[in-house]
Amino acid sequence: MSEKFKIEDGVPIRHAYSGRAMKYPFKELQVGQSFYVPLDGHKSVYTLQCSLLTCARQAGIKVTTATDDNGVRVWRIE
């Protein structure tokens, strides 16, 4: 048994919540609809795309994306 860590039962699970409203409209997006996010202020199209995919996963929806030099388009697929 590890003396460094105490194993406990019955501790309620805290759900991660930043307290901020979702920046992108994933909850309102219907299957087949899309929205475009311009690159404004993001380091690269790749980092913007990764951020959008992470937000979609956290919102519990499936999306696909397409990039161009100026931003990312996101479609809800399920």
Highlighted features:
78 residues, alpha+beta, 1 helix, 22% strand
H/E element sequence: EHEE
Q: Please tell me what the overall shape is.
A: elongated
Uncertain residue ranges: none
The separation of the N and C termini measures 45 Å
**Contiguous helical run count:** 1
Number of distinct beta strands: 3
The amount of helix comes to 10-25%
**Global structural class:** alpha+beta
> How are the strands of the largest sheet arranged?
1-3-2
Give an account of the 3D structure.
The protein is α+β, with helices and mostly antiparallel strands and 78 residues long. The chain has one helix and three strands; from the N terminus they run βαββ. The protein has one helix at residues 45-59, and strands at residues 34-38, 63-68, 71-76. It has a three-stranded antiparallel sheet with strand order 1-3-2, with helices on one face. β2 (63-68) and β3 form a beta hairpin. The chain starts with 33 loop residues before the first strand and ends with a strand. The mean pLDDT is 87.
Write the layout of secondary structure elements.
Elements: E1 34-38, H1 45-59, E2 63-68, E3 71-76
Antiparallel strand pairs: 1-3, 2-3
Short description:
The chain has one helix at 45-59; strands at residues 34-38, 63-68, 71-76. The chain is of the alpha+beta class and 78 residues long. Strands 1-3-2 form a 3-stranded antiparallel sheet, covered by helices on one side.
